[in-house]
Design a protein that fits this description.
alpha/beta, Rossmann fold, 12 helices
Length: about 260
Amino acid sequence: MATTIVFANQKGGVGKTSMCLHTAGALVKAGNRVLVVDLDQQGNLSSVFAKNIHALKQTVADVLLNSAKTIDVIQKTPIENLDLLPANLSLSELDAKLAGDDDSQYYLVEAFKSIIFNYDYILIDCPPSLGKSTRLALVAANGVVVPIECQDWAVKGSHQILAFIERVQQRANPKLRFLGFVINKFSPRRRAEQDYYRALKKQYGKLVFRTEFNDVAVFVEAAAARLPINMYRPRSDVANAFNKFSKELLSHVQEKLHHTS
């Protein structure tokens, strides 16, 4: 049965999509069957594999709003053992159409029931908000990873995302576990980032992944090549970092999910 992991943060531009894509690539390389789910109406994750996301006949919005069968909407990617549940602007209707429907937070849980045994991992890319899409993702998930930058807002905003996760745990998904912050787009030469880096480490300690990622152009290149980094530049330092991160992530999953179930 698949372990479902969400990449979430209310702030845009922190690298949620890149983390989701490249972690998926590392997990596939390690021999796992992986489904990536795009819950962002911008469809950036979907655009890596779909040439024209606006021409898609069905998306995750059809699963959540129109009772489409999940298996019929999932698309194969050119990468073996990596599938996609895509999104486009049709997902922008989600909040309005599900407003006032308290049961709607469980719609993604229901959608996964028919495919949960087809994969080892389901990775969900969330929009830069704490709205309906992110809530559906957290309710359906086993664990959540928060990509974060060493910036002023990161230290202040970290409390907000943790509080949101706690509310979901208390009210809808008690099995949800916070797996940790992962520092992304880090520029160690900047003194301000060094200060916020130390602040994050001091405040959260072991809740911060040891593996960190710098702000490098190869992420953009890999997305343009429509490949995870370990398939685009398999011998690069960044590819090695994602292989290392995926192993660390799985150790957190083992420790925080399987030992507490």
